[in-house]
Amino acid sequence: MNYYFQAERMSVGYQGEPVIQNMEIGLNRGEILTLIGPNGAGKSTILKSIAGQLKLLGGTVYLNKKELSRMSGAELSRRMAVVFTEKLKTELMTCEDVAATGRYPYTGPFGRLSEKDRAAVAEAMELVHVTELGSQDFTKISDGQRQRVMLARAICQEPEIIILDEPTSFLDVKYKLEFLSVLQELRLRKGLTVIMSLHELELAERVSDRILCVDGPYVERFGTPEEIFRPGYIQSLFHIGTGSFDEENTSMELEAPRGKADLFVIAGGGSGRSMYRKLQRERKAFATGILYENDLDYPAAGALAAEVISAKAFEPVDEAVLLQAKKVMDSCSRVICCRTAFGSLENANRELLEYARQCGKTIPYREGDDFRWQK
To answer: Do residue 270 and residue 356 come from a single domain?
Structure first.
């Protein structure tokens, strides 16, 4: 199959020593590829090799059927933009000056900007919300602001493909979302192809068309997010030994409290997650239920609870499950209910709460209460 971007048997590394070998990558125009993997696995090395900053140790990279190594510097600078984390030498340059350097592949020998060039710079700065920074010294703004200015620089270069190394590292949650939304918009509007690395797995799962999993010396997996985020794989890729990662929900939890549960939590519908994490922080082992297997609380419960009493989704709760929950509750000294009301299909949990009250084990609780458990 002919791809817009293609790497055939690509090997990358330093001083003749390979880090990753024999990579095979194919992307259609306008697709977003994200590299994920442990620190030091070779993600930046791959990106620098594609960008031409490192010489390939083997294989060939094509852009629209043409070898990158055969492109002139002028042609490559018009077709590819690069945003890496290295600091630029920008003494006495404003943010607008820095963004405008993205137009140099199109300017004459003296680097003078035309009205068309200035319009492209203004549009790019507006896209990433840095217009108000235009006159400020680039060296005196925050790391997150610099990252957005550098994206504006790459956008006004009007490339066909953009290479980004950890572009969201210095951005707060607002600008992470805006940054990736801009990439999606450019992908749809201008057919921009994006190759980047990300640490935020939940963002990689949401923004990517393809994901490349790296943990040398060979590519671990290459595929769609649905193919990559399979149960247990991310835990294995990142060698997670403490805590857990849920691929289905792209959520992480810290290590569960150890020991026998002395507290039973009645939850469901997402009401229990904050309580589970509060108990984890206090290292209090707990049991919880009755949760349907598709409940919002279920992933966190599975990662943090000493025992989870569950029921099959969309089915009435079996009497044996209710009896099991009561038996576990009998072994706990206290019960907390995170629910203020129960739905018509939650009679089992309603009965469970009434049983706890009869046993005198319930602890009054409102969402947001800040308290410590008595010993």
So the answer is: yes
CA angle 312, 313, 314 (to 5 degrees): 120
Taking phi first (over 0 means left), then psi (-120 to 50 degrees means alpha), and beta for anything else, what does residue 342 get?
Answer: beta
Say which residues have a Cβ less than 8 Å from residue 237's Cβ, sequence separation at least 6.
Answer: 36, 37, 38, 213, 215, 220
In this prediction, residue 375 carries a pLDDT of 38
pLDDT of 265 reads 97
Cis geometry, peptide bond prior to residue 163 (ω within 30 degrees of 0) = no
Number of independent structural domains in the chain: 2
How much is the pLDDT for 88?
A: 66
Indicate the DSSP class of residue 139.
G
Q: Quick check: is 373 in a domain? A: no
CA 182 to each of CA 27, 93, 186, 188, 209: distance values in angstroms, whole numbers, following the listed order: 20, 25, 6, 10, 15
The answer to whether residues 155 and 149 touch, using CB atoms and an 8 Å cutoff, is no
SS3 assignment, position 192: coil
Give the orientation angle of helix 173-190 with respect to helix 143-155, to 10 degrees: 0
CA distance 55 to 348: 65
pLDDT for 77 equals 86
Same domain, 281 and 230: no
Residue 287 burial class via C-beta count within 10 angstroms: exposed 0-12, middle 13-18, buried 19 and up: buried
The rounded distance, in Å, linking the Cα atoms of 330 and 200 is: 41
H/E element, 362: strand 362-363
Q: Residue holding tokens 């031409």? A: 52
Q: Is 247 inside any structural domain?
A: no
Q: What is the pLDDT of residue 164?
A: 95
- Helix-strand-coil split of the chain, %, nearest 5: 35, 25, 40
Residues of the chain with pLDDT under 50: 371-375
Q: Are residues 280 and 358 in the same domain?
A: yes
Looking at the DSSP bridge assignments, the partners of residue 193 are: 161
264 vs 56: CA distance, rounded Å: 58
How many Å apart are CA 202 and CA 273, to the nearest integer? 18
pLDDT at site 374: 43
CA dist., res. 256 & res. 277, Å (int): 9
Pairing of strands 5-14, 58-63: antiparallel
pLDDT for position 182: 86
Q: How far is the C-alpha of 122 from the C-alpha of 128, rounded, in Å?
A: 10
